[in-house]
Write a structure and sequence with these properties.
alpha/beta; 12 strands; single chain; TIM Barrel; 13 helices; NAD(P)_OxRdtase_dom_sf; NADP_OxRdtase_dom; AKR2_Oxidoreductase; two-stranded antiparallel ribbon
Length: 316
């Protein structure tokens, strides 16, 4: 297994449902988006990821039927016992497999939602589930103040599941710092954090360093900014030029910059083709110096600007 592969996880956000917000995904998938076609595509990408050495897979209740797709693949490979499976609760998928659905997912961080969704996840994934995360903690979420919910999460932890959370929005750092202070039974409750860090939105970096120093496993999502760091964005020409100076395709430079962070546990590939998996694994093995990464951060945006733009991306 390559050093790069050890850092890479496979995220199923773009594979478990017909519509998503990643630029270029439509060209990769074409018109092949029936549930069975996407199930087959997911299996193909999982096969490629495993062959490349990837052993961490991330899904969620709101990623369409990603848990079912992953469970089917695992059932077809009963000898595999070295895959870490992470999932998330807190959003429901309500898109009904429709490309033009008005709403694709709904957020609910209540105790009732946790109880409903953890039962569904355990039904799908059974003993394969290793990590269970609150999906998209933000400052307005009631989760960290809900003592009954925290107790229920601690009970799941005490039954052998690592508890984590993901973050989004311009206040990611504040949420990370608050969550890693939460304890139950004299022990930290959260042992995994999944945040967005990329060349356009690196603001959470210092907080992730603190989390790693506290023993929390750090996972990065959206390393390519939902496709903005693949072909290039007219609004951010500097990072494209910086990648050219390094003689690297922009997406390789962007992925390598995440993999080079000293606090990183895993960086998720959002691949929807085997080739993309292979490219991401190769990029994770590229060595970049601190000064090279600093040059690539030339177009880093104000977090509020970045997240406002993300919220306006079309599902396609």
């Amino acid at each position: 297994m390559s050093t790069g592969a050890q850092k890479v996880g496979l995220g199923l956000a773009a594979l478990g449902r017909p519509a998503y917000i990643t630029s270029g995904r439509g060209d990769d998938l074409g018109g092949h988006r029936s549930m069975e076609q996407m199930r087959a595509r997911t299996a193909q990408v999982l096969d490629a990821a495993y062959a490349a050495g990837v052993r961490y897979v991330d899904c969620a209740r709101s990623y369409g039927v990603s848990e079912s797709f992953l469970a089917s693949w695992l059932a077809g490979h009963p000898a595999l016992d070295d895959v870490t499976v992470a999932s998330k609760w807190g959003y429901r998928y309500v898109g009904d497999w429709q490309m033009t659905a008005e709403t694709h997912e709904q957020k609910d961080h209540s105790l009732a939602a946790f109880q409903e969704q953890v039962a569904a996840t355990q039904h799908e994934l059974g003993s394969h589930l290793d990590v269970y995360q609150i999906h998209s903690l933000t400052p307005d979420s009631p989760a960290l103040a809900d003592q009954s919910l925290l107790d229920a999460l601690a009970e799941l932890r005490d039954n052998g599941i690592r508890i984590g959370f993901s973050t989004s929005g311009p206040a990611q750092a504040d949420v990370v710092r608050a969550a890693i202070e939460v304890t139950r039974g004299g022990e930290p409750l959260f042992r995994v954090v999944q945040s967005t860090w990329n060349l356009l939105e690196p603001s959470v970096g210092p907080a992730l360093q603190e989390a790693a120093e506290a023993g929390v496993h750090v996972v990065v999502k959206e390393a390519l900014a939902n496709g903005r760091l693949v072909a290039g964005d007219p609004q951010t020409p500097g990072v494209h030029e910086a990648a050219n100076v390094l003689n690297l395709p922009l997406h390789q430079a962007a992925f390598a910059a995440v993999a080079a962070q000293p606090w990183l546990g895993h960086v998720l590939s959002g691949a929807v083709t085997p080739t993309q998996v292979e490219e991401n694994v190769a990029a994770a093995s590229i060595s970049l110096s601190s000064s090279q990464i600093e040059q690539l951060l030339v177009d880093a945006q104000d977090p509020r600007e970045y997240w406002t733009a993300r919220s306006q991306r079309a599902w396609a």
